[in-house]
Amino acid sequence: MRNKTSIFLVIILSLTVAACGGKKGVKDGDEEGVSTTALGDGTGGMGSALGAGGDLATNNKVYFEYDSASVTDESRLLIEAHAQDLLNKPGTTAVLEGHADERGTREYNLALAERRALSVAEIMVAYGVARDRMQTISYGEERPESLEHNESAWALNRRVVILR
Amino acid sequence: MSFGSNNVNMLRRAGVLSMLAGLMFYCVNANAALEIEITQGVEAGIPIAVVPFEWNGPGVPPHFVSDIIEADLKRSGRFDTIPRGDFLSNPHDHLQVNYKDWRLIKAEALVVGRLQRAGTNQYQVEFRVFDVFKSKQLTGFRYNVPGKSLRKLAHQISDIVYEALTGERGAFDTRVAYVTLERSPTRTRYLLRVADSDGFGAVTILESKEPILSPAWSPDGERLAYVSFEQRRSMIFVQRLGDGKRDLVSSYQGVNGAPAWSPDGRTLAVVSSREGNAEIYTINLQNKQTRRLTNHIAIDTEPAFSPDGSSIVFTSDRAGRPQIYRMRMDGSGVQRLTFEGTYNARASYSPDGKRLTMVTNQGAGYRIGVFHLDSKGLFVITDTTLDESPSFAPNGAMILYATQQGGSGVLSAVSADGRVKQVLRFQKGDVREPAWSPYNRKL
């Protein structure tokens, strides 16, 4: 029960963060909502979701909670930016590499990391990208971004990398 | 040992085995009846003295046979080896044994022997085991072996000593498969290796720049199934150790992982996400026919057959977190087995089918657990935090697993009751994914 409560809190918190980030986008002009406005022209009006520059080549990592393949609302903005970019560049494809942190078993993590890549692909499809333009690969815990064994390393390693 | 280590190297064990099969050995006293009663749950192991074997010859023998035997017995957790400095005498055969010397230092069992040259690169080895309390020899043998077989012979002697004193079969003359990762700024190299059960005599059977994981021994010990990313995604191969030949057995779209052998060696259970989600399938290795066993939106992975081949245990997060489930061979009758802890995964059976070993997290990190199928009790037997990949020795007495030490992966062995742990020292690199072999072919 306590676990459920804390997961719920995490969700609430991330929604709050996403909402805060969103306001910046709204300020930029369109009242219809953050995502569409910010991304339509590709000028990098991504607000806090993409960070400085809004360069998709470097802003290409979606991070996840422990043992979870749920995409946070904040990450959703990033995925949408990539989806929009794919739609703007017909004929290009994307590789979605799923990764996990080192905790737990390698085979479970292989399946978990694939599920993360599939979650990202699903969102891309929802934004209109054809499924066959994306390839998903799971590397499980085998290719960590950080080689350390601590919480901050694990947070960096639970990711999907969108390669174009 | 100086076996080569090229790509897909031949494991020369077949040659060693056939040579050993032909060697001469004489039974000094074959009456190995059980002379010492072991009470389960004893506080400590049997106090045993292993006298350094006499060496009759020039120079140093290629392997210190008695050192290997002593280390094997100590590692098993069933024995307390008495320090050699305490010995009052150093006998090498039954005529030299003075039982009083051993009672005084509270030894209950005694191993003596000698090693001598018997021709060019040929050795004669003899040993005897004594029950100190009964002032009686339990068993003893003499062998003639080439130098390169001395280490293997030492493990076989350990098996005989172990069985004479515990009544259970030893598992020292077995092998382990494992993966090492060497990472340097210029290159990354994964090696799939096979070594003796104490970590010596390692042979590389596959080298790759991409990850290798989940080696699994065929029941006859002659093949390894494993997952390799050599083609930039996970695929399952089965490789024969004798000649290095291998087959690609699963390369469907998505994940191909977690191979497990059926007890008859004809079927592999594997994980595939070809239909969109990680599910468990079986592959008939003769006709390559596959059959889907699970059908659930959750992750289903890490299958392992029961020793009687009637059921498969697996990991699933269908209840929210990974837990261990069991199903019949056709996928029916799915039943959840574990309820303790937030994370239970990668279960595999003990050889008698009564226990499972698994990775378990009860809130203090990822540790090795032993689950008793009859009582449903789950016992945590390690105290580290990133433990992985446990497998039982073929006699069920020990569990081999991987853990972290000083920021790097190491292999460790723990007695199945958790009482004795020992880190196995391997060469450089991060060591992971150990799998204990079945019994080697008998002499």
Helix-strand layout with pairing:
The complex is a heterodimer of chains A (164) and B (443).
Chain A (H helix, E strand, L loop, with lengths): L1 H26 L6 H7 L20 E3 L9 H16 L5 E5 L7 H21 L7 E5 L12 H7 L1 E5 L1
Helix pairs in contact in A: 1-2, 3-4
Chain B lengths: L12 H9 L3 E5 L16 E5 L3 E3 L8 H11 L3 E3 L17 H6 L4 E9 L4 E10 L4 E11 L3 H17 L8 E9 L4 E9 L6 E6 L3 E6 L5 E6 L6 E6 L5 E5 L5 E6 L5 E6 L6 E6 L5 E3 L7 E6 L5 E6 L6 E6 L6 E2 L6 E7 L5 E7 L4 E7 L5 E3 L7 E5 L5 E8 L2 E8 L5 E4 L5 E7 L7
Parallel strand pairs in B: 2-4, 2-5, 3-5
Antiparallel strand pairs in B: 1-7, 5-6, 6-7, 8-9, 8-31, 9-10, 11-12, 12-13, 13-14, 15-16, 16-17, 17-18, 19-20, 20-21, 21-22, 23-24, 24-25, 25-26, 27-28, 28-29, 29-30
Helix pairs in contact in B: 2-4
Which key phrases capture this entry?
heterodimer, A: 164 residues, alpha+beta, 60s Ribosomal Protein L30, Chain: A, 4-stranded mixed sheet, 47% helix, B: 443 residues, mainly beta, Rossmann fold, Neuraminidase, 7-stranded mixed sheet, 4-stranded antiparallel sheet, 4 helices, 43% strand
Task: Write up this protein.
- The complex is a heterodimer of chains A (164) and B (443).
- With 164 residues, chain A is an alpha+beta fold.
- Chain A has a single domain (2-163), classed as 60s Ribosomal Protein L30, Chain: A (2-Layer Sandwich).
- Chain A is 47% helix and 11% strand.
- Chain A is built from five helices and four strands.
- Chain A has a four-stranded mixed beta sheet with strand order 1-4-2-3.
- The longest helix of chain A has 26 residues, at 2-27.
- The radius of gyration of chain A is 16 Å and the shape is globular.
- In chain B, the strands form seven sheets. In chain B, strands 1, 2, 3, 4, 5, 6 and 7 form a seven-stranded mixed beta sheet that branches.
- Chain B has helices spanning 13-21, 65-75, 99-104, 150-166, and strands at residues 25-29, 46-50, 54-56, 79-81, 109-117, 122-131, 136-146, 175-183, 188-196, 203-208, 212-217, 223-228, 235-240, 246-250, 256-261, 267-272, 279-284, 290-292, 300-305, 311-316, 323-328, 335-336, 343-349, 355-361, 366-372, 378-380, 388-392, 398-405, 408-415, 421-424, 430-436.
- Chain B has four helices and 31 strands.
- The model of chain B is unreliable at 1-43 (pLDDT under 50).
- Chain B has 443 residues and is mostly beta strands.
- Chain B has two domains: 31-166, Rossmann fold (3-Layer(aba) Sandwich), CATH 3.40.50.10070; 175-436, Neuraminidase (6 Propeller), CATH 2.120.10.30.
- The two termini of chain B are 21 Å apart.
